[in-house]
Amino acid sequence: MSDDPSNFERPGTATLAESHTEMTELLLPNDTNNLGRALGGAVLHWMDICGAIAGMRFSNRQCVTASMDHVDFIAPIDLGEVAVVEAYVFNVGRTSIDVKVDVRAENPKTDEERRTTTSYFTFVALDEDGTPTPVPELECPTPEEEALRQEAVDGRHEQMEAVYRRMDGE
């Protein structure tokens, strides 16, 4: 393949559902702060891993993190709770893959759940030499997949607008 970006071929198509990834982590003392709640860095680590796996499942390539959008920790995850991290691909560029990552806390004793954070990551697919390589086109063949994709597109847009408003002092 030539280095000319106008002369690239996508390696077929892949669906949003094929990228879906769910991880669970039991919050243990090593990943808590002095209040018995999840360390933000631990949660970001889990989100990065889950997002990368979604990107790899989608592209059948190694993926590296290019960026992570703004993150608000809206609810804590307490010691002994289960962190559920879900990710899926919602948009692609030539070599980049946009992934929505949601985290929720589950209390295994009561089955209560609460949303704790959401962010949007961009990963880059790499070939065997570590060079960015084209990714498949995204397909959303079911209404459910299209709705998830649109939810992620809209959510990212809303999140970025909120960040810009904060930066402007609103």
What does this structure look like?
The chain is an alpha+beta fold and 170 residues long. The chain has one domain: Thiol Ester Dehydrase, Chain A (Roll). It has three helices and seven strands, in the order βαβαβββββα. The protein has helices at residues 16-19, 40-59, 143-167; strands spanning 13-15, 21-26, 62-68, 82-92, 96-106, 113-126, 137-139. The strands form two sheets. The protein has a five-stranded antiparallel sheet. A two-stranded parallel ribbon has the order 1-7. A hairpin with a 3-residue loop joins β4 and β5 (96-106). The chain is globular. The N and C termini lie far apart (48 Å). The relative contact order is 0.21. The model has no long low-confidence stretch (mean pLDDT 93). This is Acyl-CoA thioesterase.
Main sheet overview: 5 strands, antiparallel
Whole-number total of structural domains? 1
- The CATH class is Alpha Beta
| The CATH homologous superfamily | Hotdog Thioesterase
- Percent of residues in helices comes to 25-40%
Enumerate the strands of the largest sheet in spatial order, edge to edge or round the barrel.
Answer: 2-4-5-6-3
Ends: how far apart? 48 Å
Beta-strand content estimate: 25-35%
CATH topology: Thiol Ester Dehydrase, Chain A
| Overall body shape | globular
Number of strands: 7
Quick recap:
With 170 residues, the chain is α+β, with helices and mostly antiparallel strands. Helix content is 29%, strand content 32%.
List the helices and strands and how they pair.
Elements: E1 13-15, H1 16-19, E2 21-26, H2 40-59, E3 62-68, E4 82-92, E5 96-106, E6 113-126, E7 137-139, H3 143-167
Parallel strand pairs: 1-7
Antiparallel strand pairs: 2-4, 3-6, 4-5, 5-6
